[in-house]
Write a structure and sequence with these properties.
The structure is a single chain. The protein contains 27 helices and nine strands. By secondary structure, the protein is α/β, with parallel strands linked by helices. The strands form two sheets. A six-stranded mixed β-sheet has the order 4-9-8-5-6-7, sandwiched between helices. Helix 6 (134-146) runs parallel beside helix 27 (632-644), helix 14 (376-389) packs across helix 26 and helix 18 packs across helix 24. The protein is globular and about 75 Å long. The two termini are 42 Å apart. One of its GO terms (biological process) is photoreactive repair.
Length: 645
Amino acid sequence: MAARGSSLPKTHAKEAFCLSEKDLETLSPRLKANPRARKSGPPMKLYNQDELQALAVAKFGTLEAVEAERDRRLAVREQRAEAKLQREAGSAVNSPPPAISAVLTPFREASWAAPAGACVLYWMRTAVRAEENPALDVARAAAAARGARLVVAAFLLTAHPYPTARRWAFWLEGLRDAQRELRRQGDDLLVFLEGHTKSCVPSAGGGISHPGAHPKPPADAPLAGGWAALAGLAARAALVVTDESPVPPDAGWLETLGAGLGGGTALWAVDAACTLPMRLVARSAVDKAWKFRSASELPRKARMLNCPYGGAGGGSEGGDAAAGEGGAAEAQVLPPLGDLGWEPLDLQGADIGALVQGCIGVDQEVPPVSHIHGGTREGNARWQAFLHSGLDQYANRRNNAMLRDGVSRLSAHLHTGMVSPFRVARDAMAAKSYGAGKFVDEFLTWREVAYAFCFHHSAHLETLQVVPQWARNTLERHAADPRPLVTPAQLETGATGDALWDAMQQQLVLTGELHNNSRMTWGKAFIGWAPPAEALAALIRCNHRFALDGCGPCSYGGILWCFGLFDTAKAPESTPVYGSLRQRPTAGLIKRLNAARYLALAVTPHVPTPAQAARAVEAGAAAKRGAGQPTLQQLFSKAAKKQRT
């Protein structure tokens, strides 16, 4: 509940204290201008928290009874939401249980009965981890429930619009960790690296086969080898499970794969990125952070209380638990996978730099960086170091771009799913410092509103169609305003003549990172150099090509913020070029961010202390679950028992 003496708006007051409109009529609220419509809208009604609490206690008897009633209503609301989702989704593969359906988007449905020898394929994309991974756990549970083999595979496709050596090296480092951990758990990870992986001649028979059309590659794919390998493996499966990723190119690839699969193969996308699944957030709540915060706070709390991760011992993903409940053991006695038609990469001990250097179709002009590496091990080590040495000072240090470690620097690991967002959220929430509170708000509000926004606007994220109408109007009115001419080459090399902006761009090119506070100023500058649509395209390219966290929902959220998303008008309409958009001129940063000092800022690899390394290993291990928390395997088993009875 809110702090004593504070005020709550009517909706929050009713939810927090289980009061009705009629109950509130006995109180005298304070009136405040409505932030949604300050000039024309009705005022907000704010109720005193102490008065609300007294009224609720009078109604229910005790404060404990009020809290019990609130928890009961939350549970009912969650059950109704999940029931609605299941009705909308239909009976996808015999209706998975509600706790799973809430994170699952069924793109294709199929019969539960698997053809003899058919497998369950988990296509690992943006949850590159073997711990606390709902997509992996759903695939494991579905395979166990069907008595089918689980196949886990990852495909690095040069049809990706930004297949840089930097991105590929980071991804492969993450896949190496995931492959090692999956093998420890009794499974494996098949890795296809397009431009490198060798093709094999398949044998005449044997192995797993599943009749069905092979999906066609995307129309713009320059190389078809990786897509053909993915399509061939998917065609053998009774069910394909993958990570929900509502951004280009992932969203389009998923639709293409689903459209080409045979009728006997189901396709599920699982949200492994958000504490409150994207699909549970209403479209109307994703255009403003305060709306999202209000709409997500209570349902997120209910979900996290019942999260199957993070119990005593550090939390796990169901890796060992799933294997212990039959997932890996059964797979050993099922028919072998047979010939794939390609040779999977063994990344253990591999020279990843040499692998990437030898890849056809990879952009070698953006090389890997040496100060940050992919993988769950490094990601967890970074998080443990920040949790114990930086989180409590986050609120005071986060806006100083000269303090590289004033922020967690986990964005690349979170974007690729190499670090569990569930672990980060619960660790930060347990810290209970002022800095931790600010971090939690940034992590749960600003990060997850970007994911939810992308989920609801996936098809138009690279257009101005998704920004608010007022922003589109002002951008259109000023599209023809005079601007200095800046070429793409000047932008990418940081040679525009604006010393501070050039330093930020060169830092991004050099390191693959850009401090978020600097990034907002950096992104806004594009509008001053090109008409709106061209500025958006140039900003997307510069961000996605060089940033290790590029191409993700948070990148799209930040990029579109520069064009008015999540924001309101902040300047007179007559302002040249920017109109009523918020401005962030580099001149405003000069006093606290000297260009020469910023460009010379040292970049050193993250080297955890022995204690931090030990904590990271412990945190990253497949550990015990919390008492009373159901595994996804158990949820599937319970659902199957209900269906049989």
